[in-house]
């Protein structure tokens, strides 16, 4: 459209003509879109699961950003539920197809949103994220590979907060790799949980939601995972 304005010296005339041409293009584009919408589109269902991996490889970063932004900015329960389902699905797909970088990124995003690190006060949506992480730990443990360490570390934080809130005894070795120390013997070395300013606030919330039997089952079953 700049060609239409090159012979004009008056800036106002140039701007007016530019705006006129812009509106013409917009109108023409809208008409083309409306015309295409009138045509019946055909939906093709893919039957080969091999199509999924290249699609995920191209879109995973955008998916991760969209889900993370949505979880940060929303508090609506239905929206949070949908976004967490998206994260769980992304973790499963990337795990099934052996996409290590993508899987690690999605697991880290979910783990971060649980607030089990004690860096923030928990909200209801963070408790929902904890429930989602537990689902991943139970359903996809065998395919998580290196990401299992991140999951187990956060489950260890969860157990510790539960004991704090319920008045249970907390072993100083929780979260270490010392043999015979709770379920956390499977934790990597040097990842011992450290009490933060928000632990006292978050612990009672964990007690109201967490199920110790589920936590114990995750630790117990971790020794049965495929190597």
Keywords:
mainly alpha, 63% helix, 227 residues, 8 helices, elongated
Describe this structure in words.
The protein has eight helices and no strands. α2 runs antiparallel to α3 (77-96). The protein is elongated, with a radius of gyration of 26 Å. The model is unreliable at 1-5 and 175-192 (pLDDT under 50). The chain has one domain (50-222). It starts with 10 loop residues before the first helix and ends in a 5-residue tail after the last helix. The chain has helices spanning 11-38, 52-73, 77-96, 100-113, 124-139, 147-166, 199-209, 212-222. With 227 residues, it is an all-alpha fold.
Number of structural domains: 1
Stretches with pLDDT under 50, minimum 5 residues: 1-5, 175-192
Strand content: under 5%
Q: Radius of gyration in whole Å, from Cα?
A: 26 Å
Q: Report the major sheet.
A: none
Please tell me the overall pLDDT: 81
Query: SSE string, helix = H, strand = E?
Result: HHHHHHHH
Which structural category fits the helices and strands? mainly alpha
How far apart lie the N and C ends?
63 Å
Strand tally is 0
The percentage helix is 55-70%
Q: Determine the number of helices (DSSP H or I, runs of at least 4 residues).
A: 8
Shape: elongated
């Amino acid at each position: 459209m700049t060609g239409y304005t090159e012979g004009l010296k008056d800036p106002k005339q140039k701007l007016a003509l530019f705006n006129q041409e812009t509106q013409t293009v917009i109108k023409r584009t809208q008409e083309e879109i409306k015309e295409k919408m009138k045509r019946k589109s055909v939906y093709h269902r893919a039957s080969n699961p091999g199509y999924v991996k290249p699609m995920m490889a191209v879109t995973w970063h955008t998916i991760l950003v969209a889900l993370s932004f949505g979880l940060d900015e929303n508090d609506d329960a239905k929206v949070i539920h949908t976004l967490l389902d998206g994260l769980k699905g992304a973790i499963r797909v990337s795990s099934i197809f052996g996409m290590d970088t993508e899987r690690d990124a999605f697991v880290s995003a979910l783990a971060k949103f649980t607030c089990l690190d004690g860096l923030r006060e928990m909200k209801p949506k963070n408790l929902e994220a904890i429930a989602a992480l537990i689902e991943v730990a139970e359903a996809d443990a065998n395919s998580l590979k290196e990401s299992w360490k991140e999951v187990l570390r956060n489950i260890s934080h969860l157990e510790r907060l539960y004991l704090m809130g319920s008045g249970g005894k907390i072993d100083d070795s929780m979260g270490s790799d010392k043999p015979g120390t709770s379920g956390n013997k499977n934790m990597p070395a040097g990842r011992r949980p450290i009490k933060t300013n928000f632990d006292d606030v978050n612990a009672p919330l964990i007690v109201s939601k967490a199920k110790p039997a589920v936590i114990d089952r995750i630790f117990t079953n971790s020794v049965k995972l495929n190597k």
